[in-house]
Amino acid sequence: GVHLFAEKTSWEEPGKHLYNVEATSYALLAQLVLKDFDSARPIASWLNEQRYYEGGYGSTQATFMVFQALAQFQKDVPDHKDLNLEVSIELPSRSSAIRHTILWESASLQRSAETKKNEDFVVTAKGKGQGTLSVVTMYHAKLKSKHTCKKFDLRVDIRRAPEDG
Questions:
Q1: How far is it, in rounded angstroms, from Cα 63 to Cα 78?
Q2: The pTM is what?
Q3: For a designed S-S bond to 10, which of 27, 41, 46, 72 qualifies (C-beta 3.0 to 4.6 A apart)?
Q4: Which whole number is the average pLDDT over 57-85?
Q5: Within the chain, how many helices (H) and strands (E) appear?
């Protein structure tokens, strides 16, 4: 059988992110085959936390395995169908909170909110279920004038299209 040692919910090898998420995906699938849903929940949570802000997991193979394992988790774990969350995001620069209702039928849809200001915010979730919150902070800095980017080359050739007729 598959055992979780010392309450570990993931397979973690330092510096091997792709292997970690792929191996942990297999562990989640094994727990689901064994119908050990109590052990499967923290594994699924860990996998959700590993997602890059663009939505992937670093490689096609790792992303495919994570999606397969999480899809099987959603299908097999019985209490997910009761999902009903009311989520609000309060930003000081907005006069009213951004509100989302997350139900089983629409749970896979990603929701987002954006602010251009560096400000504190409050997220409140009420109801039944579990979700993942990702916060991305971006900043822009001017390059030093003598710095040249050698990793990007864009060439544009504009030509007039032939006229019909």
A1: 24
A2: 0.53
A3: 46
A4: 83
A5: 3, 3
